[in-house]
Amino acid sequence: MYQILIRNGTVIDPANNIHDVLDVAIEGGKISSVSKNLDGEAVNEVDASGCIVVPGLIDHHSHVYPLAKIGIPAESVCFSSGVTTVVDAGSTGAKNFRQHKDFITKSKLTVKAYINVCSTGLDSLPVKMEDVNPAHYDEGEIREIFEEERGNLLGLKLRTSAEIVGDMGYAPLRETVNLAERLGLSVMVHCTNPPGEMDELLSYLREGDVITHMYMNKASTIIDDNGHVKQSALEARKRGVIFEASDARAHFGFDVAERAIREGFFPDILATDITKLSVYLRPTSFSMANQLAKYSMMGIPEDELFRLCTINPARHMKIDAGTLSVGSSADVAIFRREKFSVTFGDRADGSGHLRRGEYIYRPLMTVKNGEVVYRDIAF
Q1: How do beta strands 30-35 and 18-27 pair?
Q2: Is 354 part of any domain?
Q3: Residue 364: which domain range?
Q4: pLDDT of 120 higher than 90
Q5: H or E segment at 296?
């Protein structure tokens, strides 16, 4: 007898190029079969007719409590949005990560993290910005924390906004990349309102480094003066730089995103960057389900849309997730694409650009390691 049997859903598994009406069986916390008209009974049989069945989503950029004072209550927010793996994007530094290790290892949600180059991460917010002066980077302590916790950690995080780096310009970015090179790590760079040209910022990034907030529209962006994606962005992608869309409350602009998407410059990873200040807040990021609807509205095809938050981040993170392959961890999300009038915006206060969408992706069920961790009461 199967543990869970999901019948008749439209299975979209970009990792295996599957888009078909199939049944999904789960046993022992693993995917045991994906096929048409599976025989057998289950402890929990689910009729997913008219629904989309996908690998559990990965939100590669969020801020999670208690790692961040402004972090989200991760299990409740993520599981109810179809997310089974979340990444905290640099809320802590090498000095204060250890105190949260128990939370990360005991959560039913898979939690990974980037370590901020600032030793105390974002702990000083909102009173003052983090200290990103390269003279204050503690290479020894950073090396030590990665040696201890490499299984939980993904790389270094730097916010390189002008209001944070001040007159240091790109010096913090250059030294962060140099430090990462010495330690064999990748880097995630927050690029909103950069202190110089985007061309220069991109020139420092290496294969496997992540530029987050790729569609931000403050100061120098990925769009050139003629309204096209900059050659520097195209070249960065060719050499393996990862472009991530994670919109939060103000790290996104329709004027940038729509032009890039029309030219086929899609994200490599779709995430949220939600905190308690933006979760469930309209008209901006709200949740991962809202991100799916917004980027679908902007023209990203459905199969590609789910690729951006399943197998793409899983491969970048080198984890067993983002797929419904037989034998893989049974992380599964079920959605229904429903007609619904919704407003999307690029500023939390509604002062920016607004767009009207006609569909949402409604989360109906989330399965984590073979356990149902969320289910819509009407499903």
Answers
A1: antiparallel
A2: no
A3: 2-54+326-337+359-375
A4: yes
A5: helix 288-297
Q: Look at the block and give the residue holding tokens 């289950």.
A: 42
Q: Which two tokens stand for residue 111?
A: 């939690």
Residues 279-311 have pLDDT tens digits of: 999 999 999 999 999 999 999 999 999 999 999
In a domain, 37, yes or no: yes
Query: pLDDT tens digits for 3-20?
Result: 999 999 999 999 999 999
Q: What is the mean pLDDT of the chain?
A: 97
Q: CA dist 15 to 23, 57, 69, Å? A: 17, 13, 35
**Nearest alpha-carbon partner for 319 in 113, 64, 159, 26:** 113
Residue 245 lies in a domain: yes
Residue 365 confidence (pLDDT): 98
Mean pLDDT, rounded, for 246-269: 97
When computed from its CA atoms, the radius of gyration of the chain, rounded to whole angstroms, is 20
Residue 204 belongs to a domain = yes
- For residues 161 and 36, membership in a common domain is answered with no
Contact indicator for 201, 193 with CB cutoff of 8 Å: no
Tell me how far apart the alpha carbons of residues 212 and 252 are, in angstroms, rounded to a whole number: 10
- In one-letter notation, the amino acid at residue 24 is V
Query: Letter for the amino acid at 1?
Result: M
Say which residues have a Cβ less than 8 Å from residue 51's Cβ, sequence separation at least 6: 9, 10, 334, 335, 336, 364
Q: Is the pTM of this model over 0.85?
A: yes
Residues 160 and 291 in one domain: yes
24 and 64 belong to one structural domain: no
* Same domain for 233 and 86: yes
Region of residue 197 (phi > 0: left; psi between -120 and 50: alpha; otherwise: beta): beta
How many structural domains are present in the chain?
2
- For the segment 128-178, what is each residue's pLDDT rounded down to a tens digit? 899 999 999 999 999 999 999 989 999 999 999 999 999 999 999 999 999
- Which DSSP letter does residue 371 get? E
262, amino acid identity: R
> Under 8 Å CB-to-CB from 63, ≥6 apart: which residues?
70, 71, 72, 88, 89, 91, 122, 273, 274, 275
Listed residue (211, 212, 207, 107) closest to 152, CA to CA = 107
